[in-house]
Amino acid sequence: MADPAPALPRGALRAAARIDAATPAERDRAVDALRALAILGVVLGHWLVTALVADGTGLHAASPLQGMPWLAPVSWAFQTLAVFFLVGGHVATRGYASARARGESYGRWLGARLSRLFRPVLAVLGLWTVTAALLLLNGADFVTVHTLVKLALSPMWFLLVFAALTAATPLLTRLHPLWPLVAVLHVDLLRFGFGAPSWLGWINLAAGWLVPYTLGAAWTRGELDRPRAGRLLLAGGTAATAALVAWAGYPASMVGVPGVPVSNLNPPTLVAVTFGMAQCGLALLLRERLRRTMRRPAAWAAVALVNLSAMTIFLWHQTALMATTATGLLAGRLPGLHTLPDGLDWVAARLAWLPVFALVLAGCWATFRTCEQSGPGRRRSRVVRTHRPQRRATGAGARHV
Predict the structure, then answer these.
(1) Which of 15, 333, 372, 389 is 20 to 30 A removed from 305 (C-alpha atoms)?
(2) First to last CA, the chain
(3) Mapping DSSP to helix (H, G, I), strand (E, B) and coil, where does residue 51 land?
(4) Model confidence over 335-356: pLDDT tens digits?
(5) CA 370, CA 360: separation in Å to the nearest integer?
(6) How crowded is residue 297: how many other Cβ atoms within 10 Å of its Cβ?
(7) Confidence of residue 374 (pLDDT cuts 50, 70, 90)
(8) Of 174, 206, 169, 172, whose CA–CA distance to 187 is shortest?
(9) Residue 60: helix, strand or coil by DSSP?
């Protein structure tokens, strides 16, 4: 049987081959693949469950999960932030160990990481500040402007939490994931079992994402190398999630739904954490298969491209959706773009819009990717080595992301 790869244009195949050849042999490509899958999962999830409905006076946000709760499994497939925090914890703890072995200071290591994380944010903030001001000056409805700005900037909560955990990495390298899990359990017991104030739930914004982040640190320590660890996380997380949804009254959706009093994500609940543990277990089980897949130059080139611009893709994907929605209004009220998400016809129309969103996002990427791929904190070569349990830190070898 012929290899399907030649179906790609020759130029693309040559470029993929060059990227593959330039990648150091010791790079753990599964780590990059998991990060790319996590970012793309969040992007597709937002595009599928975020609707901007035109009601004659402006745009307001809605969700297909509100009128069609049976679509909750969509959130199970695309709410992949736990995998991103798992990879982030693994990469940060390995990177910090390497930095110490090289004699690099904590401040320099942290500055380089945060520089790449936040540099692309400036462009998003600048564009939306100007856009919001122009819309208001031209008489746009305030509710519409507020909706657009809130959706555009909402991904930034994730960056703040991720930055805080990154800064705390030296303190988290040995923290067992059980401790933040217990903290989340107690916060939910107080909130939902004993009527404690709802603001207490915001403790889970740190504790909830600490669980996958410290699982990443455990991965670095070699404690999750055996398949048994991945199976235990997958089975235990799945069983706990199913039990909590079935018998403890937690929502089935892993994202917030308008009109539902409890959101599993904002702030994270125990269900979001146990579900994230199941996702982390599945990610760990897929490592070897991903490493084999990433030996294909075309697959690796696609993953490498996403990783080079991960923050740009993440920060601009909601802007791509809203730019398409606003431009589409010039042609009238379009199905799947401006209509109420209350039926299968909306789902089919929204699926047809996904390639358009992707094309607009590609335009944003082409315009703003240099904000992420340049700067004082950027290194020319970035390597994540295939994991080996570390007996002692060593300064030899490649740098870590």
Answers:
(1) 389
(2) 39
(3) strand
(4) 999 999 999 999 999 999 999 9
(5) 17
(6) 21
(7) low
(8) 206
(9) strand
